[in-house]
């Protein structure tokens, strides 16, 4: 069976040490060449080296997704190096201060919208014509914050709900051109940042970190927290021809924490 992304070119924004890295490596393992975009050049170089080790091409492009000229350079570089783009993963995100909406700083909320929503629109618009040339696919990385209304998460939920609406609307607009647009909504992701947070909670409570993990996992159907590769595999599916009739959808990847 051929790799699901064999010889395709996938652009990924927000490449960091957790999910961003996992997305890049799983796309490469599935046969894709990968264009890596983020602000931290050293981090991009590390992931690019890992992709090269898997036998695929990697192009690292330092990018500020909130800046039009920077995004235009990303598009130009991707096309100059690879000749086409088959997939786009909008993974860049910003979490506004976690405080009640009635107290939240509106400039901070506005800044989160700039990264979480408008940057995804910007990149999709810039790549739309090239994606249409190859019946390409766009995947927005969202969050399980869509599924709850806990205090202090209001501003983050606002931006992620807007991102979901954006993906659905783009699906309707770009579908007639052959471009699919879907969403993946992870819950907990067992990577470095969450591990650090659980260690912090454990120290505050005077308990082992494993206890914090087990208590959290007990609220999830599969009794464990999803890892970056498991989120990334869902993205690979949506980028691939296996999902050729799937568009406008939101796939929750949360181990059964929420049912949707």
What is the topological layout?
Blueprint: E1 9-13, H1 19-29, E2 33-38, H2 41-53, E3 58-62, H3 68-82, E4 87-90, H4 106-133, E5 137-141, H5 154-174, E6 180-186, H6 192-205, H7 209-217, H8 228-239, E7 250-253
Parallel strand pairs: 1-2, 1-4, 2-3, 4-5, 5-6, 6-7
Describe this structure in a few short sentences.
47% of the residues lie in helices and 14% in strands.
- Kindly report how far apart the N and C termini lie: 32 Å
What is the CATH topology classification name of the largest domain?
Rossmann fold
Dominant shape: globular
Strand content range: 5-15%
Write the element-wise H/E pattern from the N-terminal end onward.
EHEHEHEHEHEHHHE
Give the C-alpha Rg: 18 Å
Count of domain modules: 2
- Judged by helices, strands and strand pairing, the structural class is alpha/beta
* CATH homologous superfamily designation of the largest domain: NAD(P)-binding Rossmann-like Domain
CATH architecture annotation of the largest domain: 3-Layer(aba) Sandwich
Total count of strands: 7
Main sheet summary: 7 strands, parallel
Number of helices: 8
Give the C-level CATH assignment of the largest domain.
Answer: Alpha Beta
Helix fraction, binned, reads: 40-55%
Report the average pLDDT across residues. 96
Strand order of the largest sheet: 3-2-1-4-5-6-7
pLDDT below 50 for ≥5 consecutive residues: which ranges? none
